[in-house]
Design brief:
Blueprint (H helix, E strand, L loop, with lengths): L20 E5 L3 H7 L5 H17 L2 E2 L4 E2 L2 E8 H29 L1 E3 L5 E3 L1 E8 L6 H15 L15 E9 L1 H10 L4 H4 L5 E2 L9 E4 L18 E4 L9 H13 L7
Parallel strand pairs: 1-4, 1-10, 4-8, 7-8, 10-11
Antiparallel strand pairs: 2-3, 5-6, 7-9
Helix pairs in contact: 2-3, 3-4
Length: about 260
Amino acid sequence: MTQPNPSSTFTFSQPQPCPSYVGIIPDGNARHLKKNPNLKTYQAGGDKTTEIINEIASWVDPSSSEYVKGVVLYGLSSDNKSKRGEAVERVVLEQVLKQCRILLRKGCKVGFEGEGERGVRVRFNGDIEGLSDLKLKEEVKEIERISNERSGRGGEGGGGMEALDVWVLLNYSGREAIRRFGGLGGEEEERSATFHSGSSVMPFSIDLIVRSAAEFRLSDFCLYESSYAEFFTVDKLWPDVEREDFRSVREQWGGRRRRMGS
């Protein structure tokens, strides 16, 4: 594997360990809409998602050349799908898929001035077939088809980092994923083909989870993968979150002693 070039990515004044997988629970879009009824809140939230993923894609530990391998984004939970109705489901999905296409097309800009580029692969997990809009379901499949054709290597100037895997959870339930995982006996080969037919356990552990809007709940997010994740919350609604908030979280995460059950 080509080693990343730390000069092309964001680093801190002191060396910081780097999480391999980061989970994002982007909470507060609906509350932001109530406070700012004239703003296109879900569009602002979608744009913020792309900005934050670009930030995370830049994280690297210069002492070990480790970098973030993937981001898990809570796009739409099964509970929210059932509670909020088809109209909200459609708006949320349109914005999520729009940002997925932007990430695929442009990749992630890394470095202090965004001078480098890192490729992106988008993957989906959840009951995709249970989504209401047929057109959007087909778009999910098209985005993943394009991703599967990617070579896995970032573009020129990406510091040698492999493409960032962005897992988007749609119509997803962590409890359902564990139930189905038990039913499949934990067979990796069988699970790999089930991500669209229902919520599935993913083949990695999440190291860091960040939730906005000052909430301290997992809300059925990646219950199996988050067994030893460190949890942080940002006291801002999702559209108001800034890159600096995530840099602060990264620095605090680096200062925690992770005992992993010992």
